[in-house]
């Protein structure tokens, strides 16, 4: 039987090239775009400054539909979750679907809980929620009046999406359980699909970035968005304790002026490169001896399955993760070590253990083997298989 054509509408957190970072949602959208039965992928996102054209065709062929924020300041982003602030702005998207759909199936993918009303503004063949974060929890772990308001608004929006979804995917067991609790006994397919890796991009790349400014010795590195969920205080203490190590941070500053990040950067053995294009990331990986994912203890981080874990392993690097309970089952000697808490001595001791075997060829091969089983292509095929898109209604 010939597969029906499908249009995929992906609700995302921001414009495609924002911060030069590639998240799960970017990889999902590109995977969907490459499927033979896909007619079109539309990336629907909030934007501080919506472009003049309603639709922008990206280099990868995906169409971007930007919805201008209520107001530019970050404090007003609650408008992304409240219907009155975005409903009219979706009209042209809906007109496009109404005019251009000629028998295709149309699927709505939520990758964050924005624009919840969209789920009821069109007769979707499927609504899918791909949940990758505990969205309502404050990323810094700090609670105040503003974060309590934000938490309430996002929680309500997400609850509507959970109710509207036909299928729900979650990146960790914590998120799966959270969703199931909120369904309150309602039967709905909820699947755990953890984050993966573009395996060949990291394992076959031997380029090396020139970034150490002449420093020698062991390099501990973090690559990704630099945000308040990271334990900058612990890393600063480790940098002071281990002067012969270099601590390398690669990624855009999303800390909003966090003083602890500023203090960390004062250490002579700490290097921050700023943002890096996705194509440059493997070259930075090859500079690093030990990958670090130093997260704070928080409810937000309890739910996270970090994108970089399998990327480090695909590059053959051992990894230390802090306060990421979703990763405990990945633990294996010479490959990955998980630490709970924020004890600097424990962190440096574990890094010393990995330092002694980081370049052992047999251990490098074991790390790559662990990552190979988590290739994005396989994970996304598993997800599509759960949707049964080729079955007629």
From TrEMBL:
Keywords assigned: Glycosyltransferase, Transferase
Pfam families found in the cross-reference section: Glyco_trans_1_4 (PF13692)
Record bears the keyword Lipid metabolism: no
Domain of life where this protein originates: Bacteria
GO molecular function, one term: glycosyltransferase activity
PANTHER family per record: GLYCOSYLTRANSFERASE, TEICHURONIC ACID BIOSYNTHESIS GLYCOSYLTRANSFERASE TUAH-RELATED
NCBIfam families listed in its UniProt record: TeichurnBiosyTuaH
Protein name: Teichuronic acid biosynthesis glycosyltransferase tuaH
């Amino acid at each position: 039987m010939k597969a029906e054509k499908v249009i995929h509408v992906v609700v995302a957190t921001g414009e495609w090239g924002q911060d030069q970072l590639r998240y799960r949602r970017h990889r999902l959208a590109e995977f969907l775009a490459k499927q033979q039965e896909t007619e079109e992928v539309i990336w629907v996102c909030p934007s501080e400054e919506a472009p003049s054209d309603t639709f922008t065709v990206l280099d990868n062929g995906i169409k971007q539909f930007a919805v201008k924020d209520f107001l530019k300041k970050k404090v007003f982003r609650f408008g992304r979750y409240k219907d009155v602030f975005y409903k009219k702005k979706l009209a042209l998207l809906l007109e496009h679907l109404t005019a251009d759909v000629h028998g295709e199936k149309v699927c709505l993918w939520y990758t964050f809980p924005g624009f919840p009303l969209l789920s009821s503004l069109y007769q979707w063949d499927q609504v899918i929620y791909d949940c990758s974060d505990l969205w309502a929890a404050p990323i810094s772990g700090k609670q105040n009046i503003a974060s309590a308001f934000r938490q309430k608004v996002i929680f309500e929006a997400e609850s509507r999406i959970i109710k509207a979804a036909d299928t729900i995917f979650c990146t960790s067991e914590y998120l799966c359980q959270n969703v199931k609790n909120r369904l309150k006994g309602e039967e709905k397919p909820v699947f755990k699909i953890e984050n993966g890796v573009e395996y060949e991009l990291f394992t076959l790349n031997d380029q090396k970035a020139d970034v150490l400014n002449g420093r020698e010795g062991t390099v501990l590195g973090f690559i990704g968005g630099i945000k308040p969920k990271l334990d900058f205080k612990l890393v600063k203490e480790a940098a002071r304790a281990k002067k012969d190590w270099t601590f390398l941070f690669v990624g855009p500053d999303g800390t909003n002026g966090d003083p602890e990040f500023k203090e960390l950067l004062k250490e002579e053995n700490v290097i921050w490169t700023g943002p890096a294009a996705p194509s440059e990331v493997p070259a930075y990986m090859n500079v690093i001896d030990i990958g670090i994912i130093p997260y704070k203890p928080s409810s937000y981080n309890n739910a996270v399955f970090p994108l970089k874990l399998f990327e480090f392993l695909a590059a053959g690097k051992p990894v230390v993760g802090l306060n990421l309970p979703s990763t405990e089952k990945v633990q294996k000697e010479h490959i990955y070590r998980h630490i709970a808490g924020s004890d600097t001595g424990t962190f440096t001791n574990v890094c010393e253990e990995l330092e002694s075997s980081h370049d052992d060829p047999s251990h490098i091969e074991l790390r790559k083997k662990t990552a190979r089983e988590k290739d994005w292509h396989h994970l996304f095929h598993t997800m599509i298989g759960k949707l049964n898109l080729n079955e007629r209604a």
